């Protein structure tokens, strides 16, 4: 009996000794291993019982940059936030628009193809922030039932980001860039003109709008046919017929920036290449008065010695940009970039432009901006006088069909000059000007019948215009 007690005591002593020896190993490896295994089983158990999946989108990337996906999702959620959230954060944008985002820890739901999805704004804190701004880390968490995993990961997230980007594009302030030798200066582009302000044949206007919209929605189509996603427009017509206004209306319709390229400020072809490469997608690159910008007019040699304003300008022009340089840069830009771009040339003298510059494929659509027609007048009367009809419209219709008057001239007569100028007064003003122009035209056609000489109409007559434009 005593012997067995002694053996047991020795055994206990050995066990205690071995345990003491093993303790550090148990603490450092075995215990964490057991805990990790338990944790994994707990996680698995929870995953079996919790059917929801979460996706987290951080506000900033690892390099402390703003995460584009977060910004786009936030924009997508804005309409739902203002409708559903109970706690929101208000922010004033540079365009003076108030936007509402979800406040921290707020949750809202969304629905996609009949599936319910929850969005939640979470926040974590850095124990050792590198900077004060690094202390908080916000994230958006998306939660959905696991049976919709395929739909959410393959379609919903793409849909959210695409929609969010479209909202951001709509909200952003567009830019107007103008160039010096090799760089662009940026201004906010706030021109208010829209297509409904443009006076022109309504059928032609609709055709242009449709063309622009189908271009801007044509990413897949252009990919499919293997063509760079670009389109060229040539706007031609007399001064004051709305060419520059049309470019602004195009930018407003498509939400594009405008690069107003002044070729006379560009030293040579290589500087032109640098400038063109610095333009961004979703933009209109416009070269105004292309025929006077460069030494590229077709009749340059024939015109030497004349007093034509453009010819003088042409020979004073220090730019060494050439026609072939311009063609190479345009074609190079188109073939090097797949982005959405429009290039517009405007001119008063289409006949002076080298056909190579405006051939189809470079300038896909040639749009003539011409004198004001009656439909155009109605647009201007609506814009300036808020008139849809008036008893004087009949007289104006007849007079407009007999005269060539630019929309700029019509606008000038319609615009009230004082607070007391009512719409009828402005219409009478226009009628008077049109009658004077008609009289003038008849006199010029038949000088013998000259009776009055004091006419000083501001309206351009066809003969005068031809003199100016030749
Ligand atoms: N078609 C038009 N529709 C509405 N307004 C027009 C139109 N054409 C001209 N205007 C008015 O006349 C002003 C001058 O027009 P705009 O500068 O667009 O003409 P333009 O064709 O570019 O002339 P230019 O050949 O001299 O550059 C505009 O600000 C606008 O108020
Ligand atoms: Mg213009």
Automatic annotation (TrEMBL):
<feature type="transmembrane region" description="Helical">
    <location>
        <begin position="5"/>
        <end position="22"/>
    </location>
</feature>
<keyword id="KW-0547">Nucleotide-binding</keyword>
<keyword id="KW-0067">ATP-binding</keyword>
<dbReference type="InterPro" id="IPR003593">
    <property type="entry name" value="AAA+_ATPase"/>
</dbReference>
<keyword id="KW-0460">Magnesium</keyword>
<feature type="region of interest" description="Disordered">
    <location>
        <begin position="440"/>
        <end position="470"/>
    </location>
</feature>
<dbReference type="InterPro" id="IPR003959">
    <property type="entry name" value="ATPase_AAA_core"/>
</dbReference>
<dbReference type="GO" id="GO:0005524">
    <property type="term" value="F:ATP binding"/>
</dbReference>
<dbReference type="Pfam" id="PF00004">
    <property type="entry name" value="AAA"/>
</dbReference>
<keyword id="KW-0472">Membrane</keyword>
<dbReference type="Pfam" id="PF25568">
    <property type="entry name" value="AAA_lid_At3g28540"/>
</dbReference>
<dbReference type="GO" id="GO:0016887">
    <property type="term" value="F:ATP hydrolysis activity"/>
</dbReference>
<dbReference type="InterPro" id="IPR050747">
    <property type="entry name" value="Mitochondrial_chaperone_BCS1"/>
</dbReference>
<dbReference type="InterPro" id="IPR003960">
    <property type="entry name" value="ATPase_AAA_CS"/>
</dbReference>
<protein>
    <recommendedName>
        <fullName>AAA+ ATPase domain-containing protein</fullName>
    </recommendedName>
</protein>
<dbReference type="Pfam" id="PF14363">
    <property type="entry name" value="AAA_assoc"/>
</dbReference>
<feature type="domain" description="AAA+ ATPase">
    <location>
        <begin position="229"/>
        <end position="373"/>
    </location>
</feature>
<dbReference type="GO" id="GO:0006950">
    <property type="term" value="P:response to stress"/>
</dbReference>
<dbReference type="InterPro" id="IPR058017">
    <property type="entry name" value="At3g28540-like_C"/>
</dbReference>
<keyword id="KW-1133">Transmembrane helix</keyword>
<dbReference type="InterPro" id="IPR025753">
    <property type="entry name" value="AAA_N_dom"/>
</dbReference>
<keyword id="KW-0812">Transmembrane</keyword>
<dbReference type="InterPro" id="IPR027417">
    <property type="entry name" value="P-loop_NTPase"/>
</dbReference>
<comment type="similarity">
    <text>Belongs to the AAA ATPase family. BCS1 subfamily.</text>
</comment>
